[in-house]
Recover the amino acids of this structure.
Protein backbone atom coordinates (compact mmCIF):
# COMPACT_ATOMS: atom_id res chain seq x y z
CA UNK A 1 0.00 0.00 0.00
CA UNK A 2 1.50 3.32 -1.06
CA UNK A 3 1.80 6.22 1.32
CA UNK A 4 -0.21 9.37 0.64
CA UNK A 5 -0.76 12.86 2.01
CA UNK A 6 -4.22 14.31 2.66
CA UNK A 7 -4.77 18.01 1.98
CA UNK A 8 -8.05 19.39 3.27
CA UNK A 9 -9.96 22.37 4.70
CA UNK A 10 -11.04 22.97 8.29
CA UNK A 11 -13.94 23.41 8.70
CA UNK A 12 -15.11 21.38 5.71
CA UNK A 13 -18.72 22.52 6.08
CA UNK A 14 -20.47 25.60 7.38
CA UNK A 15 -22.88 28.41 6.59
CA UNK A 16 -22.06 31.93 5.45
CA UNK A 17 -24.27 34.88 4.57
CA UNK A 18 -23.96 38.39 3.06
CA UNK A 19 -21.38 40.56 4.82
CA UNK A 20 -19.86 37.64 6.73
CA UNK A 21 -16.19 36.68 7.02
CA UNK A 22 -15.01 33.12 7.56
CA UNK A 23 -11.57 31.77 8.55
CA UNK A 24 -10.67 28.49 6.86
CA UNK A 25 -7.53 26.52 7.67
CA UNK A 26 -5.67 24.54 5.01
CA UNK A 27 -4.35 21.40 6.73
CA UNK A 28 -2.30 18.37 5.79
CA UNK A 29 -1.95 14.85 7.16
CA UNK A 30 1.09 12.88 6.00
CA UNK A 31 2.29 9.29 6.19
CA UNK A 32 5.83 10.14 5.02
CA UNK A 33 8.01 13.18 5.67
CA UNK A 34 7.50 16.04 3.21
CA UNK A 35 9.48 19.25 2.68
CA UNK A 36 7.54 21.30 0.12
CA UNK A 37 4.03 22.07 -1.04
CA UNK A 38 2.63 23.97 -4.01
CA UNK A 39 -1.12 24.59 -4.12
CA UNK A 40 -3.77 26.19 -6.29
CA UNK A 41 -6.93 26.77 -4.31
CA UNK A 42 -10.09 27.25 -6.39
CA UNK A 43 -13.06 29.22 -5.03
CA UNK A 44 -16.24 30.84 -6.44
CA UNK A 45 -14.98 34.42 -6.76
CA UNK A 46 -18.42 35.71 -7.76
CA UNK A 47 -19.50 35.05 -4.16
CA UNK A 48 -16.32 34.73 -2.09
CA UNK A 49 -13.32 37.07 -1.93
CA UNK A 50 -9.99 36.40 -0.23
CA UNK A 51 -9.31 38.98 2.47
CA UNK A 52 -6.14 37.64 4.06
CA UNK A 53 -3.63 34.78 4.06
CA UNK A 54 -2.09 33.99 7.46
CA UNK A 55 0.87 31.67 8.06
CA UNK A 56 1.63 32.26 11.74
CA UNK A 57 0.85 28.64 12.71
CA UNK A 58 2.16 27.10 9.49
CA UNK A 59 4.35 23.99 9.43
CA UNK A 60 6.10 25.58 6.44
CA UNK A 61 9.04 27.73 7.54
CA UNK A 62 10.04 29.15 4.15
CA UNK A 63 7.59 30.62 1.67
CA UNK A 64 8.33 30.78 -2.04
CA UNK A 65 4.93 32.24 -2.95
CA UNK A 66 3.16 33.75 0.04
CA UNK A 67 0.17 35.70 -1.29
CA UNK A 68 0.54 39.44 -0.72
CA UNK A 69 -2.03 42.13 -1.50
CA UNK A 70 -1.27 42.01 -5.24
CA UNK A 71 -1.49 38.21 -5.39
CA UNK A 72 -4.73 38.26 -3.41
CA UNK A 73 -6.17 40.85 -5.79
CA UNK A 74 -5.25 38.66 -8.76
CA UNK A 75 -6.76 35.60 -7.05
CA UNK A 76 -10.03 37.44 -6.48
CA UNK A 77 -10.14 38.24 -10.19
CA UNK A 78 -9.57 34.69 -11.47
CA UNK A 79 -10.86 32.56 -8.58
CA UNK A 80 -7.57 30.73 -7.92
CA UNK A 81 -5.23 31.41 -4.97
CA UNK A 82 -1.67 30.15 -5.54
CA UNK A 83 0.79 29.55 -2.72
CA UNK A 84 3.91 27.45 -2.14
CA UNK A 85 6.53 26.92 0.51
CA UNK A 86 8.70 24.41 2.29
CA UNK A 87 10.42 23.39 5.48
CA UNK A 88 14.16 22.52 5.31
CA UNK A 89 14.09 19.85 8.02
CA UNK A 90 10.98 18.20 6.65
CA UNK A 91 7.51 17.81 8.17
CA UNK A 92 6.67 14.30 9.37
CA UNK A 93 3.19 14.68 10.83
CA UNK A 94 1.27 15.92 13.81
CA UNK A 95 2.93 16.04 17.20
CA UNK A 96 1.54 13.60 19.82
CA UNK A 97 -0.93 15.41 22.06
CA UNK A 98 -1.36 18.14 19.45
CA UNK A 99 -4.54 20.19 20.03
CA UNK A 100 -5.02 20.54 16.27
CA UNK A 101 -2.67 23.22 14.91
CA UNK A 102 0.61 21.43 14.18
CA UNK A 103 -0.59 20.32 10.74
CA UNK A 104 -1.74 23.73 9.52
CA UNK A 105 -0.41 25.02 6.20
CA UNK A 106 -2.16 28.40 6.28
CA UNK A 107 -5.33 30.19 7.30
CA UNK A 108 -7.34 31.85 4.53
CA UNK A 109 -9.86 34.56 5.41
CA UNK A 110 -12.79 34.81 2.99
CA UNK A 111 -15.51 37.45 2.92
CA UNK A 112 -18.90 37.41 1.26
CA UNK A 113 -20.04 40.85 -0.02
CA UNK A 114 -23.31 42.29 1.24
CA UNK A 115 -24.47 42.59 -2.38
CA UNK A 116 -23.89 39.60 -4.65
CA UNK A 117 -23.56 40.33 -8.37
CA UNK A 118 -23.43 37.02 -10.22
CA UNK A 119 -24.95 35.33 -13.24
CA UNK A 120 -25.04 32.08 -11.27
CA UNK A 121 -27.36 31.47 -8.33
CA UNK A 122 -25.51 29.33 -5.80
CA UNK A 123 -26.74 27.51 -2.74
CA UNK A 124 -23.36 25.86 -2.11
CA UNK A 125 -19.95 27.56 -2.12
CA UNK A 126 -17.26 24.95 -2.76
CA UNK A 127 -13.51 25.17 -2.21
CA UNK A 128 -11.16 22.71 -3.90
CA UNK A 129 -7.55 22.17 -4.94
CA UNK A 130 -6.68 22.08 -8.63
CA UNK A 131 -4.73 19.11 -10.13
CA UNK A 132 -1.62 21.33 -10.25
CA UNK A 133 -1.43 21.06 -6.45
CA UNK A 134 1.46 18.85 -5.32
CA UNK A 135 3.54 17.79 -2.34
CA UNK A 136 7.23 16.80 -2.41
CA UNK A 137 8.82 14.18 -0.18
CA UNK A 138 11.77 14.99 2.07
CA UNK A 139 13.94 12.36 0.38
CA UNK A 140 16.64 14.57 -1.12
CA UNK A 141 15.36 13.99 -4.66
CA UNK A 142 12.21 16.13 -4.73
CA UNK A 143 10.03 13.08 -5.33
CA UNK A 144 6.36 13.94 -5.70
CA UNK A 145 4.20 12.34 -3.02
CA UNK A 146 0.81 10.80 -3.73
CA UNK A 147 -1.74 13.41 -2.75
CA UNK A 148 -5.41 13.12 -1.84
CA UNK A 149 -7.28 16.43 -1.81
CA UNK A 150 -10.69 17.07 -0.29
CA UNK A 151 -13.26 19.77 -0.97
CA UNK A 152 -15.07 22.02 1.46
CA UNK A 153 -18.71 22.95 0.93
CA UNK A 154 -20.41 25.89 2.63
CA UNK A 155 -24.09 26.65 2.53
CA UNK A 156 -25.03 30.10 1.28
CA UNK A 157 -27.59 31.92 3.40
CA UNK A 158 -29.59 34.82 1.96
CA UNK A 159 -29.42 36.57 5.32
CA UNK A 160 -26.34 37.39 7.42
CA UNK A 161 -25.57 34.91 10.17
CA UNK A 162 -23.61 35.36 13.37
CA UNK A 163 -20.03 34.11 12.96
CA UNK A 164 -17.39 34.45 15.67
CA UNK A 165 -14.71 36.80 14.28
CA UNK A 166 -11.61 35.50 16.07
CA UNK A 167 -9.42 36.73 13.20
CA UNK A 168 -10.16 40.45 13.72
CA UNK A 169 -9.89 40.11 17.50
CA UNK A 170 -6.52 38.39 17.12
CA UNK A 171 -5.16 41.29 15.05
CA UNK A 172 -6.50 43.95 17.42
CA UNK A 173 -5.02 42.24 20.50
CA UNK A 174 -1.62 41.56 18.89
CA UNK A 175 1.10 43.71 20.48
CA UNK A 176 3.99 41.31 19.90
CA UNK A 177 6.59 41.93 17.19
CA UNK A 178 7.41 39.27 14.58
CA UNK A 179 9.94 36.59 15.54
CA UNK A 180 13.69 37.47 15.44
CA UNK A 181 15.39 36.75 12.12
CA UNK A 182 18.67 37.25 10.28
CA UNK A 183 19.73 38.76 6.96
CA UNK A 184 21.83 36.48 4.77
CA UNK A 185 24.05 37.86 2.01
CA UNK A 186 24.39 35.63 -1.04
CA UNK A 187 25.76 35.63 -4.54
CA UNK A 188 25.52 32.83 -7.10
CA UNK A 189 25.23 32.35 -10.84
CA UNK A 190 21.67 31.01 -10.68
CA UNK A 191 20.21 34.20 -9.16
CA UNK A 192 20.21 37.81 -10.38
CA UNK A 193 22.95 37.25 -12.94
CA UNK A 194 25.55 36.54 -10.26
CA UNK A 195 24.89 39.81 -8.41
CA UNK A 196 24.74 40.17 -4.62
CA UNK A 197 21.36 39.75 -2.94
CA UNK A 198 19.95 39.19 0.54
CA UNK A 199 17.38 36.76 1.89
CA UNK A 200 15.33 37.09 5.06
CA UNK A 201 12.27 35.42 6.52
CA UNK A 202 10.33 35.39 9.77
CA UNK A 203 6.90 34.53 11.12
CA UNK A 204 4.37 36.22 13.36
CA UNK A 205 2.37 33.77 15.45
CA UNK A 206 -0.33 36.23 16.45
CA UNK A 207 -1.75 38.24 13.53
CA UNK A 208 0.59 37.00 10.78
CA UNK A 209 3.19 38.75 8.63
CA UNK A 210 2.14 41.66 6.45
CA UNK A 211 5.28 42.80 4.60
CA UNK A 212 8.99 43.61 4.70
CA UNK A 213 10.80 46.90 4.12
CA UNK A 214 14.49 47.47 3.40
CA UNK A 215 16.88 50.40 3.77
CA UNK A 216 20.36 50.61 2.28
CA UNK A 217 22.43 53.29 4.02
CA UNK A 218 25.56 54.25 2.10
CA UNK A 219 28.63 55.81 3.72
CA UNK A 220 27.47 59.16 2.30
CA UNK A 221 24.51 59.20 4.69
CA UNK A 222 24.85 58.03 8.28
CA UNK A 223 22.43 58.38 11.19
CA UNK A 224 20.10 60.62 9.22
CA UNK A 225 22.76 63.26 8.55
CA UNK A 226 24.26 63.76 5.13
CA UNK A 227 28.05 63.64 5.08
CA UNK A 228 29.76 66.69 3.63
CA UNK A 229 31.21 65.84 0.26
CA UNK A 230 34.96 65.87 -0.14
CA UNK A 231 36.43 68.30 -2.68
CA UNK A 232 37.15 65.59 -5.22
CA UNK A 233 33.58 64.23 -4.90
CA UNK A 234 32.24 67.72 -5.62
CA UNK A 235 34.55 67.84 -8.59
CA UNK A 236 32.94 64.65 -9.91
CA UNK A 237 29.43 66.07 -9.26
CA UNK A 238 28.56 63.33 -6.79
CA UNK A 239 25.21 63.67 -4.99
CA UNK A 240 24.24 62.55 -1.50
CA UNK A 241 20.85 60.87 -1.85
CA UNK A 242 18.84 60.31 1.32
CA UNK A 243 18.03 56.58 1.66
CA UNK A 244 14.37 55.65 2.01
CA UNK A 245 12.53 52.56 3.22
CA UNK A 246 10.82 50.57 0.49
CA UNK A 247 8.54 47.53 0.49
CA UNK A 248 10.32 44.42 -0.81
CA UNK A 249 10.21 40.64 -0.96
CA UNK A 250 12.89 38.07 -0.25
CA UNK A 251 15.17 37.40 -2.06
CA UNK A 252 16.10 41.05 -2.74
CA UNK A 253 18.71 42.30 -5.22
CA UNK A 254 20.86 44.94 -3.52
CA UNK A 255 21.14 48.35 -5.15
CA UNK A 256 24.62 48.87 -3.72
CA UNK A 257 26.62 46.10 -5.37
CA UNK A 258 29.81 47.48 -3.82
CA UNK A 259 28.46 46.17 -0.47
CA UNK A 260 29.57 49.33 1.32
CA UNK A 261 26.09 50.15 2.65
CA UNK A 262 24.51 49.21 5.96
CA UNK A 263 21.49 46.98 5.27
CA UNK A 264 18.41 47.23 7.48
CA UNK A 265 15.29 45.10 7.13
CA UNK A 266 12.01 45.78 8.90
CA UNK A 267 9.43 42.99 9.33
CA UNK A 268 5.89 44.28 9.91
CA UNK A 269 2.93 42.16 11.01
CA UNK A 270 -0.74 42.75 10.27
CA UNK A 271 -1.21 44.63 13.54
CA UNK A 272 1.60 47.06 12.67
CA UNK A 273 4.20 45.65 15.08
CA UNK A 274 7.76 45.89 13.74
CA UNK A 275 11.01 43.95 14.08
CA UNK A 276 14.29 45.56 12.88
CA UNK A 277 17.42 43.69 11.84
CA UNK A 278 20.70 45.25 10.66
CA UNK A 279 23.51 43.72 8.64
CA UNK A 280 26.90 45.19 7.70
CA UNK A 281 28.58 43.29 4.84
CA UNK A 282 32.14 42.28 5.82
CA UNK A 283 34.97 43.66 3.71
CA UNK A 284 35.93 40.11 2.74
CA UNK A 285 32.66 39.82 0.78
CA UNK A 286 33.05 43.09 -1.10
CA UNK A 287 33.87 42.66 -4.79
CA UNK A 288 37.42 43.42 -5.91
CA UNK A 289 36.14 45.82 -8.55
CA UNK A 290 35.09 48.24 -5.79
CA UNK A 291 38.73 49.06 -5.07
CA UNK A 292 39.43 49.21 -8.79
CA UNK A 293 36.67 51.79 -9.22
CA UNK A 294 38.11 53.91 -6.41
CA UNK A 295 41.57 53.76 -8.00
CA UNK A 296 40.01 54.67 -11.33
CA UNK A 297 38.52 57.85 -9.86
CA UNK A 298 41.83 58.62 -8.18
CA UNK A 299 43.69 58.25 -11.48
CA UNK A 300 41.16 60.54 -13.21
CA UNK A 301 41.67 63.20 -10.54
CA UNK A 302 45.47 62.96 -10.76
CA UNK A 303 45.38 63.19 -14.55
CA UNK A 304 43.00 66.16 -14.31
CA UNK A 305 45.37 68.07 -12.02
CA UNK A 306 48.39 67.19 -14.14
CA UNK A 307 46.60 68.63 -17.17
CA UNK A 308 45.72 71.75 -15.15
CA UNK A 309 49.32 72.06 -14.02
CA UNK A 310 50.55 71.63 -17.58
CA UNK A 311 48.17 74.32 -18.86
CA UNK A 312 49.17 76.61 -16.01
CA UNK A 313 52.85 76.20 -16.88
CA UNK A 314 52.11 76.99 -20.53
CA UNK A 315 50.18 80.12 -19.53
CA UNK A 316 52.99 81.23 -17.21
CA UNK A 317 55.53 80.60 -19.97
CA UNK A 318 53.48 82.65 -22.44
CA UNK A 319 53.15 85.50 -19.93
CA UNK A 320 56.89 85.56 -19.21
CA UNK A 321 57.68 85.39 -22.91
CA UNK A 322 55.39 88.33 -23.58
CA UNK A 323 56.87 90.21 -20.64
CA UNK A 324 60.46 89.67 -21.91
CA UNK A 325 59.45 90.78 -25.40
CA UNK A 326 57.90 94.00 -24.09
CA UNK A 327 60.93 94.60 -21.89
CA UNK A 328 63.36 94.26 -24.82
CA UNK A 329 61.28 96.68 -26.89
Amino acid sequence: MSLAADLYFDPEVGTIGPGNKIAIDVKIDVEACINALEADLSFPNDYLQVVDFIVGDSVLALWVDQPDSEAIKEANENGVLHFSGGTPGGYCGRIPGDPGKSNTIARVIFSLPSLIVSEVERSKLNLSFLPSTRVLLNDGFGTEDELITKIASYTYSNTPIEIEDNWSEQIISDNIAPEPFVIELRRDKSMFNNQSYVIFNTIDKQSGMDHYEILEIGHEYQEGVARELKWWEKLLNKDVIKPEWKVVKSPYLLEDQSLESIIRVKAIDKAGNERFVEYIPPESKRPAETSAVNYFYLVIIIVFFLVLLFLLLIIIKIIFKKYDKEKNN
User: Anything to note?
Assistant: The chain has four helices and 21 strands. Residues 289-328 form the longest helix (40 residues). Helices lie at 69-78, 166-173, 231-235, 289-328. The mean pLDDT is 85.
